Amino acid sequence: MANAKLWGLKKSPWVFHVAAASCNNCDIEILDILTPRWDVERFGIVLVGSPRHADALLVTGVLNRKSLPRVLRVYEQTPKPCLVICVGTCTCDTHMFAPSYNVVGPYDKYLPVDVYIPGCPPKPEAMIIGVVKALARL
Amino acid sequence: MSVVRVLFSYIVFPGLIFTAVVGLFLTWIDRKVTARIHWRVGPPWYQPYADFLKLLLKETIIPEGSSKVLFLLGPIMGLVAMSILAVMLFSMNINPHNTFVGDLIVIIYLLAIPPLGLMLGGSASKNPLASVGVSREMTQYFAYELPFLIVIAGIILKSGGSVKFGEIILAQRASGPFLYSISGVIAAVVILLSAQAKLGFVPFDSPEAEQEIMAGPYIEYSGVPLAMYKVVRAMMLFLLPLFLISVLWGGFANWWAILKFLLIIVLMILIKNTNPRLRIDQSLRFFWLGIGGLSIIGLVLAVYGL
């Protein structure tokens, strides 16, 4: 039973894209990996419109006082075997926004983060290998 | 017939399990052909089964403040209706004499239950986007059902005024499929487009538009109920072309019927992939004025036996 659960989760991770006030660079690169050139549907990865359908949350953008409650709420709405994938340096360590009065810190202070994909923005290949590593670690 | 045999036919073959397995395979064909049209590789063959398994074993969340019974009843209604429909279509294709008066009307009602379950479940989920989706689903249901019923009336006329599904198949075996006439071609076009709308395929997918209302009525579903909806959709993808073949193209008389079946499926996928989404008012106008007019012409031609 546990094996079947793991197999299903590994073979069809549906991804919800949480754009928490990012500069849109990472978002554009995320959309890139769904295009025919990279085609992640080969691995069963599909972008879904609702956090209720998601198995993985792709978070982008530096976490600030306004976006923190929203991100936590989206995480609570996701049904639970759920990965959190941080895309971009902003999400991993707040990048150049660290001294700002509005920034509340990196995501792993608030959420159980599974993968860090640094880069500004990370390349699509980097994101794919990040997700592959996360799935291999399950 | 013993109780065990009846239960077997509803649950295993040709009811729930068989139809679900074949239907999920057809959704793989859908995704693969779509991917090839996009010049992509596409998912492997086990993809729909992996999706289904994963959804079954995930947490099921029932939103706070929603009506629990209706929320969970929605997918179950669709699943039960599709299982019964599968048994009826199969048994009458295997043995057309196994029919009763008015079973065509029962089949039409069974085809109407999955959208009804979706409307109930979506409106029970207490989500504003879901209610937008439900209102569109309802509008679209009234849009495509009118030409669909007019065309069914034409088919009843062509088979000599019989509302028995088995006798429609028998009439076609005696004097050739209804498709090989002008009104038959019109009927096929209308049923194909109605099936497209029933399945929520792209020109008519405004009720569950992923980009604007985030899957519409499905938005609050997770885990097992979502898996049930996926299976209902897959079973419809199997049963609607089967219905089209049965009423217009001679039924499953021989193995060539599988080729006909695949042809219809691929045609639907091509329509899906080469058209933009219609707004809900556009699809209402399309079904009532365009396709509705066409279906009335088809009915008049059927009266004169063309």
| Overall residue-averaged pLDDT value of chain B | 85
Broad structural category of chain A: alpha/beta
Strand content of the residues of chain B, in percent? under 5%
Taking strands numbered 1, 2, ... along the chain, how are they ordered across the largest sheet of chain A? 2-1-3-4-5
Radius of gyration of chain B, in angstroms, nearest whole number: 19 Å
Residues in helix, % of chain A: 25-40%
How does the helix and strand content of chain B classify structurally? Answer: mainly alpha
> How many H/I helices of chain A?
5
Shape of chain B: globular
Average pLDDT across residues of chain A? 84
Could you tell me the CATH topology label of chain A: Rossmann fold
CATH architecture of chain A: 3-Layer(aba) Sandwich
> Total domains of chain A, how many?
1
The top-level CATH class of chain A is Alpha Beta
What is the tally of beta strands of chain A?
5
Oligomer: heterodimer
What sort of overall outline of chain A do the alpha carbons produce when their principal axes are compared?
globular
Distance between the termini of chain B: 42 Å
- Uncertain residue segments of chain A: none
Q: Helicity range of the residues of chain B?
A: over 70%
